[in-house]
């Protein structure tokens, strides 16, 4: 996607919403951004979903991630990504040397081999702001764009081997990447001087439909049992009754899965299973769908909560509501799993159990089918825009 000012005005809507924030409530992306597949990597309040490597300290101050840069290090996402669009805002004094690391190892050593370093640096640096360190210097047009001490926008599109970078809406780098650097973490760097980051969001690329909106091609109803699955005139999957499941014919190991769901009832229960055994029922990891919470407190899910890893990790907050469409993004990368609901990360779990064939019993790193659960006779759910992209090895 080529970035333009029309799209930038949509993306910047979130920054405006912060000024009107309700204390204690997460600030979610606009529906337009959610429909386009964007998620937040930083919630504006905590470092949930991030991990520190190196010596530097990171903190949240005024809806931004900040560091003094007095010691070297990184703040890395716990999740690995492959093909994506990334947008964030940064602010740094004139002498700061920092950067954003993409497809990175947790502790990168060589920016030409184990990561891509998108630099934030002075004009006299061999790779000034917007450059890919060791790979491609930003065009001269970018050199006067990033005025020190002010907020600026970085945009990066990594799609296969093709990489593009924009600073404040102007494209400054196009680069063809080596085939070996296929996936990795996203990191913020502390090297020399203060730096602040905010409004960090990502859109996965390369997702392919799992539902064609016409019929159940590519799925098997062999395990439907008491459940009923049908495609509506609007191209949505309507799931009623249970117990049962519908499953993909193809298996997936590491992936990004996005979908939209609507619960047609109060407190109903379903789930999306992955790395699931093709025989039996509900024999996989489960990303729960259940919007109930206790005592009016959304931080107290009643049954692991929508986006929780069922039986393993409850959500930190119930974001979705019954009778309203919500989005869900599920990422499985090796033993690590993370889920976003309405663009807000609600779970972040690593399976450290001994290996087992059945994920209900232990760690499964091999492929398995994607399954949608019909929980019981009260089940009534709609699903649409179900898309998946496999992460390269």
- The percent of residues in helical segments reads under 10%
What is the CA–CA distance across the termini? Answer: 25 Å
Based on Cα principal axes, name the global outline.
Answer: elongated
Radius of gyration: 21 Å
Uncertain segments are: 1-22
How many individual helices? 3
Structural class: mainly beta
Count of DSSP strands: 28
Q: What number is the mean pLDDT?
A: 92
Fraction in beta strands: 35-45%
For the sheet with most strands, the description reads: 8 strands, antiparallel
TL;DR?
The protein has 393 residues and is mainly beta. The protein contains three helices and 28 strands.
Description:
This protein has helices at residues 5-11, 13-19, 31-36, and strands at 39-40, 50-54, 59-60, 65-67, 73-77, 84-91, 97-104, 116-120, 152-159, 162-167, 170-176, 185-192, 195-204, 208-209, 219-220, 228-231, 237-240, 244-252, 255-263, 270-276, 285-289, 293-294, 297-301, 326-333, 336-341, 344-350, 368-374, 380-390. With 393 residues, the chain is mainly β. 47% of the residues are buried. The model is unreliable at 1-22 (pLDDT under 50).
Task: Draw up the topology in text.
Elements: H1 5-11, H2 13-19, H3 31-36, E1 39-40, E2 50-54, E3 59-60, E4 65-67, E5 73-77, E6 84-91, E7 97-104, E8 116-120, E9 152-159, E10 162-167, E11 170-176, E12 185-192, E13 195-204, E14 208-209, E15 219-220, E16 228-231, E17 237-240, E18 244-252, E19 255-263, E20 270-276, E21 285-289, E22 293-294, E23 297-301, E24 326-333, E25 336-341, E26 344-350, E27 368-374, E28 380-390
Antiparallel strand pairs: 1-13, 2-5, 3-4, 4-13, 5-12, 6-9, 6-13, 7-8, 7-12, 9-10, 10-11, 14-28, 15-18, 16-17, 17-28, 18-27, 19-24, 19-28, 20-21, 20-27, 22-23, 24-25, 25-26
């Amino acid at each position: 996607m080529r970035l333009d000012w029309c799209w930038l005005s949509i993306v910047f809507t979130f920054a405006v919403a912060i000024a009107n924030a309700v204390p204690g409530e997460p600030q979610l992306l606009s529906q337009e951004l959610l429909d386009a597949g964007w998620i937040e990597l930083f919630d504006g309040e905590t470092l949930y979903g991030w991990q520190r490597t190196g010596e530097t300290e990171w903190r949240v101050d005024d809806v931004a991630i900040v560091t003094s840069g007095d010691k070297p290090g990184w703040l890395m996402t716990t999740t690995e990504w492959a093909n994506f669009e990334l947008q964030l805002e940064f602010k740094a004094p004139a002498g700061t040397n920092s950067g954003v690391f993409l497809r990175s190892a947790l502790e990168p050593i060589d920016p030409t081999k184990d990561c891509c370093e998108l630099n934030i640096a002075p004009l006299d640096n061999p790779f000034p702001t917007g450059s890919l360190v060791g790979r491609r210097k930003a065009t001269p047009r970018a050199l006067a764009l990033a005025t020190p001490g002010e907020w600026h926008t970085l945009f990066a599109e990594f799609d296969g081997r093709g990489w593009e970078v924009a600073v404040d809406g102007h494209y400054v780098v196009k680069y063809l990447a080596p085939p070996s650097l296929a996936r990795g973490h996203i990191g913020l760097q502390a090297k020399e001087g203060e730096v602040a980051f905010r409004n960090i969001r990502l859109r996965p690329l390369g997702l392919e439909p799992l539902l064609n909106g016409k019929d159940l091609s590519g799925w098997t109803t062999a395990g439907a049992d008491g459940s009923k699955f049908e495609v509506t005139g609007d191209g949505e999957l309507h799931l009623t009754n249970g117990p049962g499941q519908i499953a993909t014919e193809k298996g997936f190991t590491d992936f990004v899965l996005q979908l939209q769901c609507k619960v047609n009832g109060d407190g109903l229960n379903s789930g999306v299973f992955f790395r699931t055994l093709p025989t039996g029922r509900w024999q996989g990891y489960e990303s729960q769908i259940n919007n109930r919470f206790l005592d009016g407190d959304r931080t107290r899910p009643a049954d692991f909560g929508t986006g929780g890893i069922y039986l393993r990790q409850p959500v930190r907050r119930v974001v979705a509501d019954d009778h309203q469409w919500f989005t869900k993004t599920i990422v499985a990368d090796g033993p690590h799993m993370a889920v976003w609901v309405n663009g807000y990360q609600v779970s972040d779990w690593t399976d450290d159990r001994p290996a087992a064939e059945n994920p209900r019993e232990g760690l499964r790193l091999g492929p398995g089918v994607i399954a949608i659960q019909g929980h019981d006779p009260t089940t009534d759910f709609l699903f649409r825009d179900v898309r998946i992209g496999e992460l390269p090895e």
